[in-house]
Write the structure tokens for this entry.
Amino acid sequence: MRWVFKQDEKPKPLRVSNPCIGYCSATSLGDAVCLGCYRDFEDVRDWNGYTEHQKVIAMMKAHQNFKEAERKKASGLS
């Protein structure tokens, strides 16, 4: 996967940073979704072996997990 910032620049490889904030409920508490970064347990566990494309997919899933958690919190379903 490549990303170009300007027409005169060469394509640069996309680098997805690890979203971990140091509070991993997926590995320490056994949650299916981490309450720190909202990644699935498998995505937390396998992150370092992922390609950049797999990391983008994991981040999109994490965003969906976050939106679902916020929806549940707003409706009082926690």
Notes: The mean pLDDT is 85.
